Amino acid sequence: MKKKNAASTASHSRLTRRALFLGGAQIGFVGLLGLRMRYLQVDQADEFRLLAEENRINIRLIPPARGEIYDRNGVLIAENEPSYRITIVREDAGDVQEVISRLSTLIELDDAALNRAMTEMKRSPPFLPVAIAERISWEEMSRVAVNAPALPGITPEVGLSRKYPMGPEFAHVLGYVGPVSDYDLSKLEDPDQLLLIPRFQIGKVGLEAKREENLRGKAGTKRVEVNAVGRVMRELDRREGEAGSDLQLTVDQKLQTYIQARLGEESAAAVVMDVESGDLLAINSSPTFDPNLFVRGISVSDYSQLTENTYRPLATKSVQGTYPPGSTFKMITALAALEEGVINSESTVWCPGHMKISNRRFHCWKRGGHGHMNLETALRESCDVYFYDIALEVGIDKITNMANRLGLGVKHNIPMSAVASGLTPTRAWKERARDSSWVIGDTANSSIGQGFVLASPLQLAVMTARLASGKALEPRLVKTVNGIDQSISPEEIPDLDVNPNHLRMVRKAMYAVSNNRRGTAYSQRIIQDGYRLAGKTGTSQVRNITAAERRAGVIRNEDLPWERRDHGLFVNFAPFDNPKYAVAVVVEHGGGSKAATPIARDITLQALYGEDPPLDAYPKKDRGRIKAQQERLRKEYPQLRSDGRDRA
Amino acid sequence: MSYLEYSVKTVPSGFRKILFLNWALVLLLISISSVGFLMLYSVAGGDFDPWASAQMKRFVMGLCLMVVVAMVPIWFWRNVSGVLYAGSLVLLVLVDIMGTVQMGAQRWIDLGFMRLQPSELMKITLVMFLASYYDWLPAHKTSKPIWIIIPLLIIMVPTYLVLQQPDLGTSLLLLMGGAVVIFMAGVHWAYFAAVFAMGIGLITAVFQSRETGWQLLKDYQYRRIDTFLDPASDPLGAGYHITQSKIALGSGGWTGRGFMQGTQSRLNFLPEKHTDFIFTTLAEEFGFVGAFSLLLLYALLIIFCIFAAISNKDRFSSLMIMGIAGTFFLFFAVNMSMVMGMAPVVGVPLPLVSYGGSAMLVLMVAFGMVQSAHVHRPR
Question: Measured on CA atoms in the order B282, B288, B290, B294, is the torsion positive or negative?
Fold first, then answer.
């Protein structure tokens, strides 16, 4: 018994030893756990705190409101309207198909948009909202909101979308906005974070694109708390962004609308420029299109309708279209000759109807010839031979130089898309582009605005404004940015540096064009004193007259297919004694200047009166036709009535 | 000394026994469980439902069970330990078969009022049965190989069954809990040294064999090891949980982010936040102070048990208490190591704090055994 006791005592003391050893090891490990805790929670606390904050806080951008655009009188021409859309969160919806079929009983769902949403949903994480219906009406939106309990995962959202209340009239000036595309992003080196917001609208073409930096504004941010799957739990704080700057244009909405109506379905362009400031009061291109279609995402059929139209509604003919200026170029040739001292107001040239230059016959438009011509009569009657003759003496270099000084062949800096620089040919240019040397016949062709010379309606308006003012006016489209005036004072506009007497001679000749019984635009004159216009007609050939045609006799333009008819041009300023506005009108394939001249006169009077002019301004025989035309336009374009301010 | 050798008369009897309970231990258990209630209330977003109230009910039930178990003389438990072990084994086999039939892992048996996990039950019956084995075995035979194989089998059979469920965490606890009892019984050091050396050798072999002809593990298993060793290498995949868990712990700082203010747990960055990862919520909301306090409570419990084991002259009681304390220690040590990124993620809950009925009741029964041994100790 004692032995057994001894053995038991021995085993118990061993047990005690081992218990203490094991206990020690366990407490040691507890110490290790404590150290680890200290390391994580004390030594590395700051780092982990930061990681926890990064986990839970997401920074979201708040898109700023795009700047609004007004005309020179404060009429709104581009605004932001609330746009309602429906989004779906896959995770919350559960049975997506079921929810969508329920939704489709409430609002009309577009199949294409639906398909797009379905593919997007498959790609994105289940908690991200995907738009399934955009630009729904307020009524549809409320119907969805009321039925929300039956539509899990569906959220009606409100955002801002661009709207052009005037519709087509300003399509070519403003351009339009659209959602950022991958292509847009690929062009930018360091894109603004804003652009990554789905469906964020940026300017695509026109002023909207060129003044994007003014209009866009700065993004606001909000910090939101998100959970592990990325769902927003609450908003922590927000910093409002900065709305885009409002722009005020120099354009007069009323005049712009009138001109658009007046041009109608003609393929034409018209530019009205203020002769004192260079403000562009109107800058039209016709036919036009509704820019709102592009904002919404234009349908394929609408788009192909626009691109397949032979009148090219999408082209901004006023700045982008370049045409041989034809006889409207003759003022430049005349001025160059005057400045070089080659001619004076008295020198005459005999016009027999043609002129032989290096064994080629250059015809005057008047087969029978004009007889003796001086500066005034040559411009008045648009004699070609007179200008061939003086051009050969002056030389192309001086003529091109004068054209450039008057704004041709120069790319004017206005915020519109594809502003063309046109073409004023030089010897070097021909060597380079045509790989042949300049010949004397080229000079003759250039002198009457044919051959290589190309100018846009904008450039023709600038030329006319410079002739009328004697100042090197630059066209201006933006009047104020965020209320800050952008104009330069008239004293700051540099002089044209052309002898004022020479300018006066040319202006006088232009006056004769429409006020002298023998002037080419006499039939389209203004008879109201103080409103009389001075202008120049132009007809530019778009085809070469073949020898066979010449033998067969001149074919009348009306008999030709549309695309082979001559362009009609007219430039003018008015009033003659106190010039206010310069106008340039180009009617594509109008069949000659007679297509452009009446339009230019109507525009001039409209600009001068600020409304429909009294019939007394027109010659008696035109009054009946003009009255009918005014009534027709008012009927067809209701926006012309009541100050043109009712919005569609 | 065995209980047969001391006078039964010195042992309290009847309801007087209640006075002889180790009340400090009871207090400790209540404190630890209260931490659990608090955290379960917090992770439910400030609600007693669904976890905290259920856990409290179970704890009260567990306390009653503990007292009942403590009232029953320890020699009765010793005598029935074989039957209890065999019963647990039968239940384990039963669960395995039913689980197979039902095409999935099934770890529990529905008792109507609760779901019982036989593997949890096994943790305590295994320790009891081993303790009674060594109580029966004469001391000089403990280190004889033949007498070592028997306890090894006693351990390996349930461990294997649990591993089949599959439940790596619990099988690990069974293995280690059994090993503690064998160690305490006085088996020669050399055996443990040998096992330890073999373990080291095996681990080395596993790593050395990688990308050789005799590669021991599958590629994906190696990747799991990589992820454990460097969770940052796969922050959104398998390493996600452990990374988020460490962020939660670390962001707690000294004093924590405040009760119910833990963003990591509230925003669901933590997995299993009411069970295996509940400690991270505690550490996030109460910081180092809170987390270390819980660790101290656990350490205190272990120290209590070790002293109870040493001071108890009954061999069965000592071995059983050490076995229970060892299992309990492994419970929280593995869980805390896991959430602090010191051990791979194996499903081991935090004892008395994590939500879970079986574990709670079984632990309370185990401490009932400890109490019984204390009340009925030889004097």
Answer: positive
